[in-house]
Design brief:
With 416 residues, this protein is an alpha+beta fold. It has helices at 6-10, 13-26, 37-57, 85-103, 119-131, 145-148, 151-159, 165-176, 199-216, 235-252, 287-300, 309-327, 337-354, 358-367, 372-376, 384-387, 391-396, 399-404; strands spanning 65-71, 77-82, 136-141, 179-181, 184-186, 220-224, 227-232, 263-265, 275-277, 283-285.
């Protein structure tokens, strides 16, 4: 149990500076008030003493959150709730103080948004379970988890360890903050919207009871936020566990399990955090992740997308570097050479279309010091996709040149 000095820890100068540094590093967008992360430093310099006094007195009122809809890979949309920058800094400061308090009792099987833990650790743990012979997986999908968290249950959980009424009131204000979408403010009575720094910790606090229940049953499981998989040795056992946990989650967490997205199957037939676990425990890229990569390639190297080449290359570099950082952590060669060839073909197609017509292509090829017989091939009447595979374009826009231009591929990051 804690003394009533949590707010003083939150408002500690070092804690606040660290919170601002993390919010600034995340480079998030502005909230409802339009203030950017860069603007906040000047704002805090003028107004922070008043803000701090309100926090100490327990009279601080958080702002509304900005609702942003983003598409889900399987269809539909997820609504993020973006707090104002000021509230993000305060939430981050609160999270930094509360996290060590709750971390001590969190499950070893919980990997999401925790220090020194990652999605890769969860995937490797799943791989070990399969190698132990637990080759059936129970995949549990909780319907709209972040939208349906019960506020009373969550606050009761937090109150078991936090006795500072000012902090509890502040968290309650953040949970109930109205969401602004399309010029309208929507009241909220449940959920902990994704987008605020405090939301991941609150999610782990809420689901800790589920972790403890699974541990009491002696189950082998991995949980990353609301993404839960349980590994068992038979289909029958998996079906029984799925049925009982569906009832338990509804009764004790006031949440719903989605029957259309939950079920029992083989690990290699589905995916976990973007990866597929094979029968021998090896980790591969999931089919859905591969298709998503292909969609991104088509999008980035679509000539109809009128974007400056320099900006296009910069965004591609950021995307493919992040993609490899995630998938390359578990798989040294996440895609094949044939697939990299397909990606380069899209790049060459882009340049061929970018050169527009015969004169433009001849001029571009001359600048690239193409051979005379290469220039003659510009008169060939074939589609851009077919031309992108031609020996001429593969020679002029060879792999080394594309790499020099910054058109990187996953193999460029591999240390062989």
């Amino acid at each position: 149990m804690l003394n009533e000095d949590v707010m003083e820890r939150v408002l500690n100068r070092d804690n606040l500076q660290e919170a601002y540094k993390r919010v600034k590093a995340n480079k998030g967008s502005a909230g409802v008030d339009g203030m950017t992360v860069e603007d906040f430093a000047d704002h805090a310099g003028k107004h922070w003493p008043v803000i701090a006094e309100k926090l100490k007195a327990g009279t601080y009122q958080s702002g509304a959150i900005r609702g942003i809809a983003i598409p889900k890979p399987q269809g539909g949309e997820r609504v993020l709730g973006i707090p104002n920058v000021q509230d993000r800094v305060i939430q981050q400061a609160v999270s930094q103080v509360l996290s060590p308090i709750f971390e001590a009792e969190f499950s070893e099987h919980s990997y999401g948004y925790r220090p020194q833990r990652s999605a890769h650790d969860a995937v490797r743990a799943a791989s070990r379970y399969v190698m132990e012979g637990k080759t059936w997986v129970v995949d549990i999908d909780i319907c709209a988890f972040f939208d349906e968290v019960n506020h009373d249950k969550l606050m009761a959980k937090i109150g078991q360890k936090v006795r500072d009424k000012r902090v509890l009131k502040l968290i309650g204000n953040y949970l109930r903050a109205p969401m602004e979408r399309d010029g309208q403010r929507i009241k909220r009575s449940q959920g902990t919207p994704q987008g605020g720094p405090l939301s991941p910790l609150l999610a782990n606090i809420y689901l800790d009871d589920l972790d403890k229940e699974l541990e009491s049953r002696g189950l082998s499981f991995c949980r990353y936020a609301d993404d839960l998989v349980i590994f068992v040795k038979s289909e029958r056992s998996g079906e029984r566990i799925l049925a009982s946990l569906t009832e338990w989650i509804a009764k004790h967490l006031k949440l719903r399990v989605n029957p259309n997205k939950s079920g029992t199957g083989r690990p290699w037939q589905g995916k976990f955090l973007g990866f597929r676990i094979n029968s021998d425990g090896s980790i591969k890229l999931a089919k859905a992740s591969l298709e998503k990569l292909k969609d991104q390639v088509r999008n980035y190297w679509n000539n109809q997308n009128r974007q400056a080449l320099e900006e296009r290359i910069k965004e591609w570099q950021q995307y493919i570097r992040g993609w490899y950082a995630y998938y390359g952590a578990c798989i040294k060669y996440p895609i094949t050479r044939a697939l990299e060839g397909w990606i380069r073909r899209h790049m060459r197609k882009y340049f061929w279309q970018r050169w527009h017509n015969k004169r433009g292509r001849i001029n571009a090829l001359k600048r690239l010091k193409a051979k005379p017989y290469h220039l003659r091939q510009t008169t060939v009447s074939v589609g851009a996709w077919r031309m992108a595979r031609s020996p001429m374009l593969s020679t002029v826009l060879n792999n080394a040149r594309l790499k020099r231009w910054g058109l990187w591929l996953p193999s460029d990051f591999v240390t062989r």
